[in-house]
């Protein structure tokens, strides 16, 4: 093993932040139970915020960016892992308070580390990444609240993005009817290839709405927040469930209590960052069985480690289809 490793490092000063690829000694790696030789990572919306500085994601300096990683165990102080194991890790403070996955080596706590499920490669695991893993948590939230394919259609907002794309593929495999909301109607063929039955323009949901609208869907997977989430809630069927996991439009929620007290709608918050191991293992086990790998492969846009700095901010522009996967090992 080399004494040094390569990493994308965020450094903050009084004048702002700089982001650059640097060579660091392995001895500098922060504390953790599992040392991983990183092979693949990915670019999520949160990564775009961190690398661009559009939001204060990195709360320590210096900070290695990247909220996801997949690779091979080199050393482990936890008996559940041994050298040579293929593993992945999502969230758990990576790129925020712990050094993350945009590096050729990473040392992470054991809690978020999961052995790669049978049938999923490291590259495919990062095509899933935090976005796809979050999508699975949203689907589980719908199921746990009794929303079945027979309940009615499911609205997926931000449909062409990472969470939306994987959510559509998962829901279609499970037999749900899907209404996809997107600001890129030119992606209609792509969304229908994943399993969407109907495409609506995001403008239908992104403006001011009424506290209570016509019932249109039994459940929602929302990664957008703000007025879009409020309008999605307002048109959810009696007894339906809305799984909220993102804030691409904003962190506010200009809604009312009417859908909750007149229709018994449930708003289920979905957190992927600090989810306990049991929930992580459940989600990844379901991804291994419920996500069609050919649909996942169709979502992948691969970039090299050298291209991360250029690629990460593009996800904030809303022009990325599917998943950006980073080839760390080259």
CATH fold-level assignment of the largest domain: Quinone Oxidoreductase, Chain A, domain 1
User: Poorly predicted ranges (pLDDT <50, ≥5 residues)?
Assistant: none
User: Strand portion, in percent?
Assistant: 25-35%
Rg is 20 Å
Q: With helices defined by DSSP (H or I, 4 residues minimum), what is the helix count?
A: 10
Structural class: alpha/beta
Task: Please give a structural write-up.
The protein is an alpha/beta fold and 330 residues long. Helix content is 28%, strand content 28%. It is built from ten helices and 16 strands. It has helices at 45-52, 122-144, 162-173, 188-194, 203-206, 226-234, 258-262, 277-290, 293-299, 308-311; strands at residues 4-13, 16-25, 34-43, 63-64, 68-76, 86-90, 105-108, 113-115, 154-156, 178-182, 198-201, 217-222, 236-244, 266-269, 300-304, 323-327. Strands 3, 5, 6, 7, 8, 15 and 16 form a seven-stranded mixed sheet that branches. A six-stranded parallel sheet has the order 11-10-9-12-13-14, with helices on both faces. 48% of the residues are buried.
